[in-house]
Amino acid sequence: MGFANELKNQTAGDWDTAVNHPFVDQLLDGSLSDENLRRYLVQDYQFCDAFTALLGQAVASAPSLPSRLVFARVLGAFASDENTYFQDSFNELDVPEADRTAPALGSATRDFDNLMRSALATRSYPEVLAVLLVAEWLYGDWAARAGDTSEWPAHAKHAEWIRLHNNPEYNAWVTWLRDEFDAVEPADAAARERVAATFAEAVRLERAFFDAALMPADAAI
């Protein structure tokens, strides 16, 4: 089965709920309100610093040059395509500068940022991979629900977020990341348990993050 699929199966309740979340449903059919999209993107953008650092730590701790180069390429793409989407969407949605750079963080945002930084602090390649894998694989799973591009929503603020997580390069990255995670499954039982706990917490927080996107702003903080 592989370590990655084993952990995904163990977290199937939260995983499937996140992938099939009402937030995702509304994004995919184009009915997601600007208010909820704005709230989601403002909070999601706050992960960029910790996520970039995680990719950098993966470059540093990967066991071989070929693996380091994969992460380096992804880091470059993340800094360009995804950041462009955020800035374009912020402009379209009239997000003020203060909300782009220093918004009040929701509890799910704070908890997920803390999880990323905790994994970063371990300098453990498997723990770093656990957080990266959940973030990328789960997003790939919900984006795969979009089907053919002819069925995607008309507005770029919805369709482009799908495209960023549903394209051949992204899908290949997720497959590679899953294989890499399987290859470094810890032999030590205690280390394996820590990685599994990190994976499960990341999945739980992905679900909580989607929940928060559909809450009234004051309830999500």
Give a brief description.
With 221 residues, the chain is mainly α. The protein is built from 13 helices and no strands.
Describe the structure.
With 221 residues, the chain is mainly α. The protein contains 13 helices and no strands. The chain starts with a helix and ends with a helix. It has helices spanning 3-10, 12-19, 22-29, 34-45, 48-61, 65-92, 97-101, 107-122, 125-144, 156-164, 168-183, 189-213, 217-220. It is globular and about 50 Å long. The longest helix is centred in the middle third of the chain and has 28 residues, at 65-92.
Set out the fold topology:
Layout: H1 3-10, H2 12-19, H3 22-29, H4 34-45, H5 48-61, H6 65-92, H7 97-101, H8 107-122, H9 125-144, H10 156-164, H11 168-183, H12 189-213, H13 217-220
Helix pairs in contact: 2-12, 4-12, 5-6, 5-8, 5-9, 6-10, 8-9, 8-12, 9-11, 9-12
Mean pLDDT across all amino acids: 95
Quaternary form = single chain
Task: Please report the number of helical segments.
Answer: 13
Instruction: Kindly estimate the percentage of residues that lie in beta strands according to DSSP.
Output: under 5%
Give the termini distance in whole angstroms. 39 Å
**Residue share in helices?**
over 70%
Question: Rg, please?
Answer: 17 Å
Indicate the overall shape.
globular
Number of strands: 0
Give the class from helix and strand content and strand pairing.
mainly alpha
- Low-pLDDT segments, ≥5 res: none
Order of helices and strands: HHHHHHHHHHHHH
Q: Main β-sheet: number of strands, strand sense, barrel status? A: none
